[in-house]
Amino acid sequence: MKRRDFLKASVAATAALAAHPIHADAETPMAKSDKAVVKKYTEIGKTGLKMSDISFGTGRLSSPSMILRAVNRGINYFDTAPDYGPAEKYMGEAMNKIQRDRIIIASKFCSPYAYPSHLPPGSKKEDYIASVDGSLKRLKTDYMDFCFVHAIGEQSDNREQEEKRLLDEDMLTAFDALKKSGKVRFLGVSSHGPNNMESLMMTAVQSGHFDMIMPAFNFMKFPKMTDILKEAKENKVGVVAMKTLAGAKDSGLDNNDPKFAHSAFKWVLKHPEVNGLVITIKSISDLNLYLGASGDTFSEADQENLNRYAKKFNQEYCRTGCGDCEPSCPEGVSIATTLRYQMYFKDYGDEKAAMKQYAKLESKADSCLSCETEECNGACPYGLPVSSILRGAHDDLTFMA
Prior knowledge:
Helix content: 40-55%
CATH superfamily of the largest domain: NADP-dependent oxidoreductase domain
CATH topology of the largest domain: TIM Barrel
């Protein structure tokens, strides 16, 4: 972007921010534009902040200008992390063009290394504080609105161990100190599984420590999520959804048809307990596509679109946050994690990152190549041919010289 165009975009972004609310008592605006814009804002739990229903995930942020473009369209909630590549740095470069109190920034207790770099169990109070200080420096801001204990249920299938990370006393003490100093306003927790996602989210809600949860939530699974959403609503805990596209396999239907993405978003947002959703936005075309669903109601036609997707991909999509088949594997293969990395590889286009993450796994799917029992197939509650999918995943994710 030329400097002249960048400045024009910046002025427009600042003007838009002046109109768009983050406080619950503010008017909900309708931005004037011939392009898709945010049409709805919802209060996050009892925080007093209102977020755009379609919000920006920075996992593959390409430039600072994408932040300004999103702000100009009315997006005011940005989800980032130290281990999302240059995302925090790019956001920091955009911050001098944005009125800080008109956007909501959420980051994570993480180290700035390759994903996943969540602070591990046993981290000290000083580690949590140092993580936030590093993020604030990269973001070029004095405070973040939310800081998350990220990806609960990902690092271990030991529920007790993950619950210890969820409710770690050093983390809670660090958050109290960070809140008192004005560096962090609210505490959140996220989970996309593959282990114990639903039970850990319920524990988080009932603990009284968290202001927001961010679970994986889409139309393909999550039978217990309704109870968690109700509990969150009763406790005035905010809910932001992620992994809303159920594997993002919609490209297999029609590359030029936005109906599936819109229907998937509207299904999530029809739940009154959900305050908004976060979706990775990589390009202007993503921005145009995803914002087209903002403020719209879920219809019978939307349900037909989702039924069509489910019929086509029911036997391919490993349900995020499930992991029910893993105890059946005598080799201890990290089944759900392997298939999530394959989703990043095939459906999200993050081939390099997916291969790097897979290489770090202790229990890879190479043992599936010679497996004769294939007990995992019978253990999948959704009838997926797990063993053959795993063999394909290992082939995709392994570099062959």
